[in-house]
Specification:
The complex is a heterodimer of chains A (98) and B (462).
Chain A (H helix, E strand, L loop, with lengths): L2 H22 L6 H12 L3 H10 L3 H31 L3 H5 L1
Chain B lengths: L1 H25 L7 H20 L8 H18 L6 H25 L7 H28 L13 H21 L6 H17 L7 H23 L2 H25 L3 H6 L23 H9 L3 E6 L1 H6 L2 H13 L3 E6 L9 H8 L7 E3 H4 L8 E5 L8 H4 L18 E6 L19 E5 L2 H14 L2
Parallel strand pairs in B: 1-2, 1-4, 2-3, 4-5, 5-6
The chains are: A mainly alpha (98), B alpha/beta (462).
């Protein structure tokens, strides 16, 4: 079993716990923005896609990488845009009065 | 030395991105700080992307920059969809995320001079299977939510056996590839079989179960990204994927609890196509109904009103009329709050977003557990397009398919008014005894029009 696997497993398990503790505290009010925000963060796979496409090894991998860059980057941009739009709509009664 | 230093700078950028991602979710704990969270996420993502563009491995910018521009061109309109389209947009977003994870995994199999080891093959195989099935599954979910595909569950005999055999076939192909990674011809077949399984997985699931399915797909998309991090030895992917995956998982658990059902029951239960329990009871029961004028006078005599929104409100796009009703009643000094069931609508938090869009203050939106104790002191509970989440059979009737599901106890209010198109049973085909209770009045009609008429009546009597 490669050493990388073990260190990645450590990171995965710890990140899973951090995720659990942080997301547990998210108000149910914001569960929809939570989902669009985590999708935007998850779209960080774009960094792997950029490397695959940018290495330009074979036509096949370059095309696959390029599609993955477009798909994940659209997810990232769209996710942040819609999350912010949704969150701007949430106003409390007090701030509405002013 | 300088090459090494550059690599270290890139690693620091990724570490900063990961920290910002965790903070981003941390800020989401309250609506007052939530937008700060988006900013953190954006900075983190921008850092990671810019750092990657400096990676010396990126030799050809043409194949990177053009897709980035195309991605931004697709992403902006996807970010600007109407709020009523958020559930299908979210499903589409799961599909795009899973698609990119799957494609990178596939590319990783074909890339490189040295053949993949057995261990890598196992990682890639699992990653590509999860990514592929999540891609097609999410597309089907998006199609159902957009109503391109029928929302009702599509079922046939032996469905579960067929679906599970297809999944088994995909896994068997992966195992065969692990045994001999050089069997390259098996790889595309494995991908296709996994894609087919995604379709089979979501097709039988009905619209009412969408909150759970969307959360589960969210979790799969996250875990496929984390697995990709294992394949590529990229910690930033492992962390982002673990965060997304655990978020989807937590939401799935919340949704399942809110329906008193298990994961397997949602995935393989094909809910509600047969209604056995009360089918025999066909006695004439009395249903009382009221017109907008009567509804308006009952509402204006109340002190405390709780509005219960459901999917029907979203379909009728009635949220803005509901807001007018809220304004008119509030002006009369009536206390108006909204009771939000966790599975109301088509995705977690769906109702909150629609009501916030209509400019209703979020401190008026109350969760089920918090508001349920208040119904006995509530003068009027007004149910708009919600059905099963108000069904008292869930508390009392052991034969009901939804027995045990936590519900909003609207029947305990002094008066209940239900806006509904007709007496047809709801999505799950379950009869709702609430409609025959003495304190219940049916308001037959389209949610938007009916609420509009009530608002006019209330304004006229002013």
């Amino acid at each position: 079993m490669p050493a990388d696997f073990i260190s990645n497993l450590y990171v995965f398990i710890l990140a899973g716990f951090v995720g659990f503790e942080v997301i547990r505290r998210v108000s149910p009010l914001l569960h929809t923005p939570l989902m669009s925000l985590t999708n935007a963060l998850d779209a960080i796979v774009v960094v792997a896609a950029i490397i695959i496409a940018g290495r330009h090894e074979t036509t096949l991998t370059t095309v696959l990488g390029a599609i993955a860059v477009a798909a994940s980057f659209s997810n990232m941009v769209g996710g942040f845009v819609i999350t912010d739009r949704m969150l701007r709509m949430f106003k409390s009664g007090r701030s509405k009065q002013s | 030395m300088s090459g090494l230093a550059l690599q270290q700078y890139l690693d620091f950028a990724y570490i900063a991105a990961v920290v910002l991602f965790v903070l981003s979710l941390r800020f989401l704990s309250s609506p007052t700080t939530a937008r700060m969270g988006v900013l953190c996420g954006e900075i983190g993502a921008a850092l990671a992307v810019l750092a990657t563009l400096y990676n010396p491995e990126v030799a050809q910018y043409k194949w990177v920059l053009i897709p980035l521009i195309i991605g931004a061109g697709i992403g902006v309109p996807l970010g600007l969809v109407h709020m009523t389209a958020v559930p299908q947009r979210t499903a589409l977003s799961h599909a795009l995320g899973a698609l990119s994870a799957a494609l990178i995994g596939i590319a990783e199999y074909y890339v490189g001079t040295a053949p993949v080891t057995r261990f890598q093959m196992g990682e890639i195989g699992l990653e590509v299977i999860i990514g592929s099935l999540t891609f097609t599954g999410s597309l089907i979910a998006a199609g159902k939510l957009q109503e391109i595909l029928p929302q009702r569950p599509i079922v046939y005999r032996g469905q579960n056996i067929v679906s599970l055999s297809v999944l088994g076939a995909a896994l068997a192909l992966a195992v065969a590839l692990v045994v001999n990674p050089a069997n390259a011809w098996l790889f595309p077949i494995m991908v296709i079989v996994a894609l087919i399984f995604g379709v089979l997985l979501v097709t039988p699931i009905g619209g009412a179960d969408m909150p759970t399915v969307i959360s589960l797909l969210n979790s799969y998309a996250g875990f496929s990204a984390a697995l990709l991090g294992f394949v590529l030895n990229s910690k930033v992917l492992v962390v982002a994927g673990a965060l997304d995956g655990s978020s989807g998982f937590i939401l799935s658990v919340i949704m399942c609890k809110a329906m008193n059902r298990s994961f397997t029951n949602v995935m393989f239960g094909a809910f509600g196509q047969v209604q056995t329990s009360s089918a025999g009871v066909k006695e004439e029961r009395v249903v009382r109904s009221a017109n907008p004028e009567e509804a308006a006078s009952i509402l204006s005599a109340a002190n405390k009103v709780v509005i219960v929104p459901g999917y029907g409100m979203a379909v009728a796009q009635a949220q803005h009329k509901v807001r007018e009703l809220y304004d008119v009643l509030t002006k009369k000094g009536i206390d108006v709050r909204f009771a939000i069931h966790p599975v109301a609508g088509r995705m977690p938090g769906h109702m909150n977003v629609l009501l916030a869009e209509a400019d209703i203050p979020y401190d008026r939106l109350i969760e089920m557990d918090e508001i349920n104790g208040d119904f006995p002191q509530t003068d009027v509970a007004l149910v708009i397009g919600a059905n099963d989440v108000t069904n008292p059979a869930a508390r009392t009737d052991q034969t009901s398919p939804i027995f045990g599901m936590p519900i909003l106890d609207v029947d305990k209010a002094h008066t209940v008014m239900v806006i509904k198109r007709s007496m047809n049973p709801g999505f799950a085909g379950i009869d709702n005894p609430l409609y025959y209770m003495n304190n219940n009045l049916m308001l037959f009609g389209d949610a938007k029009q009916f609420v509009g008429s009530i608002v006019r009546e209330l304004g006229a009597g002013h």
